[in-house]
Amino acid sequence: VQLQASGGGLVQAGGSLKLSCVASGRTVYDHVIAWFRQAPGKEREFVAAIRRWTSSSTNYADSVKGRFTASRDNAKNTVYLQMNSLKPEDTAVYFCAESSRVSRVAGAYHNWGQGTQVTVSS
Asked: Which label site among 18, 55, 72, 78 has the fewest CB atoms less than 10 Å from its CB?
């Protein structure tokens, strides 16, 4: 599966953005899809993951819980990350990736898409 993230941009603190991760080659239904982010000079960190098949349950990093929501549209073969109440510390390049299991470790994921830049101004 190939993944492509998009939807990033510049937003003021408190604003919202919705990222998209479009898959080609295979369906998002059959994969755990996770969002990670990487700020300059920092390691890539887990943001959210959505389980595969009929589950669609989600996991979130504590830093985004209650503000970010991951969802999946099987018909569009796309996973979304709705980001609300954005903070300057959310500024990073956001990536999506796939795995066969849920993990918060980047090494468990494959087929990293090209990231999308999110910048939150204070």
From this structure: 55
